[in-house]
Amino acid sequence: MISTGQTLISPSQDFEMGFFSPGRSSNKFLGIWYKNTPDVVVWVANRNNLISGSHGVTFSIYRNGTLEIRRKESLLWRANPSVAASNPILQLLDTGYLVLVNDTTEQGSSKSFIWQSFDYPTDTWLPEMKLG
Fold it and tell me: Among 44, 86, 89, 106, which residue's beta carbon has the most beta carbons within 10 A?
């Protein structure tokens, strides 16, 4: 779970994910930005559903891999994985991609992406992004 003021940082320290307010706005969004230039946002989860204020707002990963932004009992945004997860792990990659991995290595299989942020692009193009 990530609350306002907490972030996830890519291993290379190039990207950061968390709640942010653009400019002088008090509205919050969950997004990814360049860590050294936080005003350059590369992806926003809830771009069509701004969050006014930040009290009680959380971003959570559920056991089946569903990602949600909630304010207490109110659902603000949801993303469902392509398949239900047995062991979901959220990772912010060095490419700026936020991915949900189903880690099934304990079952003799391998890790597979079951959701990734850039399947839902915004207005920023990053290296390694694919069209179509």
Answer: 44
- For the segment 14-45, what is each residue's pLDDT rounded down to a tens digit? 999 999 998 888 889 999 999 999 899 999 99
**Distance separating alpha carbons of residues 115 and 107, to the nearest angstrom:** 20
Closest CA to 93 of 111, 62, 110, 117: 117
CA-based torsion, 8, 10, 13, 15: positive or negative: negative
- Indicate left, alpha or beta for 119 from its phi (over 0: left) and psi (-120 to 50: alpha): alpha
Residue 40: Cβ within 10 Å count: 10
Spatial distance between the Cα atoms of 5 and 68, rounded to a whole number of angstroms? 17
Distance CA 50, CA 129 (A): 25
Longest dimension (CA), the chain: 50
The residue count of the chain comes to 132
The gap between the terminal CA atoms of the chain, to the nearest Å, is 31
Phi, psi of 119 (to 5 degrees): -75, -10
Distance CA 95, CA 10 (A): 8
What's the mean pLDDT when you consider all of the chain? 86
